[in-house]
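Recap for those who missed Tuesday's class. We walked through two folding examples back to back. For each one, the amino acid string is listed first and its predicted structure tokens come directly after. Nothing is annotated here on purpose, so try labeling regions yourself before you check the end of the notes.
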Amino acid sequence: MNIILYAIPFFFLLIAIELVAEKVKGSGYYRVNDAINSLSMGVLSRMTGIMKQLIPLTIYTLVYQYVALFSLPDTWWVWLAAFVLYDFFYYWNHRLGHEVSLLWAAHVVHHSSEEYNLTTALRQTSGSFLSWIFYLPMAVVGFDPAVVLSVGALNLVYQFWVHTRHVGKLGWYEWFFVTPSNHRVHHAQNQIYLDRNYGGVFILWDRLFGSFQEELDDEPPIYGVRKALQSWNPVWGNVQVYTQLFKDSWRTRNWLDKGKVWFGRTGWRPDDVARDFPLQKVDLSKFEKFDIALSGKAKWYCILQHGLTVLIGVMFMMNAAQLPILTQVGLAGFVIVSSLTVGLMMENKRYAVWLEGIKNLMVLGAAIVLPLAGWLSLSLLVGSLFSMVLLVFAQKTNHSQLEQSSHMV
């Protein structure tokens, strides 16, 4: 059973509840562009996860079949032990994901939001290829692959609810488990909070290994990363740090440093590269969130397009096993392109409207040509036509808004 897939409706239900709390309290913890960006990265992560999961699972299964020291029974205590052990290895996977440049390049996606709400939990990487290595000891011990997949999914589902600012400290629970309060610390870039609280379910690992930091009343967290993403492009969000590492590795003249760039401490740069290609230092005392003004119609257009993309993505994940490989690739490609073009729309890129227009025409063509169920064809037909009309109005109001702003300047 795909636990994460079945959890998706509950994720969106909780996001809806948080949005109601947001409206009632007027707390300002959500921005449309940031939330869409987080959700787009989450969809991309699930799409690529389907395609890249096969090799790690195969390797784990081979180790389990040929190297396992024990044959563990299918009992409650084995499942409990697997749950605790998985979180232990998750702690070290997560911690090294902050301390090693190559691993940080993948994990940074989850920290790139400058907001902290339940959509942030879904802002996951599409570029993680090494994390499965940390769980191979469980195969050696003899934990069945199905058990590890299940407890891993439960671990991830647990982490969803802690990404909120609407829940305060929870007393004794804070001592043993990851909570919204101690996980807010983990997402902060304040110096005192930097690289702390790595646990997935149990905060005990942080207390044991010296990486725990309590949330302080006089030090409000500043969310995001020191080298800010400064973009709503979900594809760029996944490759940004990889790109910087590649540049540093290429530019340094020291051959040892070319490798150290990738496997050294996060943030380390060769002396010659740091001298010749300095990066701007962050001054948190002057911190401003990245934002680009959008008209109301443009926001609604992006919300609609993202909603349709999520719908197609979820339908794809629910039926992936029954779909031909070319159809899987085509749908995954559509979701990736659609997420990209919506991100470009939120950045007010003038060519984005043309890309969106082409995308809507492709959906319209699919509704007419492909042998789809009647309700689905009608939905795509109406959705694409409505999208094209709304796109025209959104672009006009957005450009007039931009022109007014430029005249005021």
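Example two. Treat it independently of the first, because the proteins are unrelated.
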Amino acid sequence: MKLIKVTDESIKTILTDLLKRSPNNYDQYASAVTEVVNDVKENGDQAVLSYTKKFDGCDLTAEQMLVTEEEIKEAYNIVEDRFIEIIRKALVNIRDYHEKQKQYSWFDSKPNGTMLGQKVTPLESCGVYVPGGKAAYPSSVLMNIVPAKVAGVEKIVMVTPPGKDGKVNPNTLVAAKEAGADIIYKVGGSQAIAALAYGTETIPQVDKIVGPGNIYVALAKKQVYGNVSIDSIAGPSEIAVLADETANPRYVAADLLSQAEHDELASAILVTTSEAFAKEVEKEIEGFLKELSRAEIIQKSLDQFGYLLVAETMDQAIETVNAIASEHLEVVTANPFDVMTKIRNAGAIFIGEYSSEPLGDYFAGPNHVLPTNGTAKFFSPLSVDDFIKKSSIIYYSKEALEPIHKDIEAFAEVEQLTAHANSIKVRFEEQ
């Protein structure tokens, strides 16, 4: 990891370096993704099955794309009862948290004959993309399906790539069943995104697509946006830890590595007011690397995007983490709640030394689908809000419209929209 003193110039350099990881900088893959998306749009199942054979090494028929009840039962027989129990415990927390986000329609009527309001309607359908193979994350299944379920989405369609044997990861299937997926298809990659966006003979078109994936999935979501809604173009995972000399360096080191193990582009950043503490953390990291299973990936991540940043004051440290706007931010200081009030930009904020990032990944309840690559400055975590839409309600009686109709007509005439003005005027023509 690179140990750097915090200055305006060093932060600017680091931010530029981190942005290189954004999917928006991988346009060299865009033409290949466009070819797949257009092929699926035009040829439906035939194209989907062809790419599944080409990219996943799995030769399926259209009928075999659908995951059957028998396959789900088989998954339950494979998955340990203890893990199913843990999934159910996590689901209670995740549902409870998201239930508090629900919004309701409201109407405000007044004696003058007006009624204004907002009608909240869940999306009719959504597609949930779930990675397969080595990157099978049942936790992401829960985090993407539960808010849609709580919002009241009628049809939740999950897609996930099959293995060469035509099977889906059993942990993924059990998580999907427990969370409430309505239908599951064995299809992955950019072809799955295109199928959900445009529909095929077998896979239905949906209103919104959510869920993580590789660069091809991210670019496919970017391409189909507009035809359907999407959650975001997610980049590699990242963590920032804001700590002072009172923090436990072993805990901080372990937390930094928890994200660095995701992939070689993941970012782990310590921001501290103590250079001595930063060096202690670095020493602990070296020790952990000798025993962790994904040490090679972690080392590459730390070499490329790992930083130990030393600030002169806590205010400067806070300013630094706000500039980074990390996906995950841990605050491990003498007064973490006071510091938390000054944090403006972070996907999720973990407070205190026992609130480590994996708690949020799996169990606490808040969603772990978070803004990355500095987008926490203007984006929020996945939530129930992502699965609803709002319609404005407007009602005026003739008596309510009469005293203001000339004002509306005048406004329209200033904009030279005479048909707008006329639409109001005709209602008050002398009979």
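Answers for example two:
DSSP finds 18 helices and 14 strands in the chain.
The chain has a mean pLDDT of 94.
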